[in-house]
Amino acid sequence: MKPNDLRTSAELVGLAAIVVSLIFVGLELRQSQKIALAAQYQARTESGREYFYQSLASDYRIEDLAADIESWEWPAGFLSADETKWLGEHTSAEWAEAAYWSVINLYGFDNYYYQYQSGLLAEEGWLALQFRLRALLQDDPFSRYLIIVTGQDFRESFVTMSRSLISDMDRK
User: Fold this and answer.
1) Could you read off the pLDDT of 87-143 as tens digits, one per residue?
2) Number of separate helices (H) and strands (E) present in the chain
3) Fewer beta carbons within 10 angstroms: which end of the chain, N or C?
């Protein structure tokens, strides 16, 4: 092999190594950005959950939410007989406390779903969490109401997925 051929080959190998290194750095940057965005979303979620934890300790916020809940119009057939009985046996302040816990739980599940969608939570982990979310939506009328009727305060993709879970439960 001639010296020029050897030099050219070495330059091509060096150039290929640089290209591979740049691709690797680009992939690492994208992964780092994905992790940073997920961490920001989790921090915002925890901040929101903390607000609702504090609301549980505030008589004013409980009374305010209780008044809102009293004006809710539950869709026909929405509540089971047990849920209707529970509402009749408890005060609107107790309803408000239950609703705050529903929001706190739903914020957590919304975050988990975001992590899953971002590729930072394995499917096996998400399926286990989805089982718990399904139980919450089945057993908690406040969580169902927040998802089905209002859909507010949560990401659209989470609301859509949750509504799909509820529809699947209704078909069974």
Assistant:
1) 999 999 999 999 999 999 999 999 999 999 998 889 999 999 999 999 999 999 999
2) 7, 0
3) C
Report in angstroms the alpha-carbon separations of 31 from 21, 36, 82, 117, 128: 15, 9, 47, 14, 25
Q: What spatial distance separates the first Cα and last Cα of the chain, rounded to whole Å?
A: 74
What is the reported pTM? Answer: 0.76
Token pair in block for residue 138: 């089945």
Nearest to residue 118, comparing CAs of 28, 41, 5? Answer: 41
Q: d(Cα 49, Cα 103) in Å, to the nearest integer?
A: 8
Nearest 5°: the CA angle 143, 145, 150 is 110
Q: How far is CA 84 from the centre of its chain?
A: 28
What pLDDT, in 10s, does the model give residues 21-58? 777 777 777 777 777 766 776 777 777 778 777 877 78
Reading the block at residue 73, the tokens are 């119009």
Residue type, 83: E
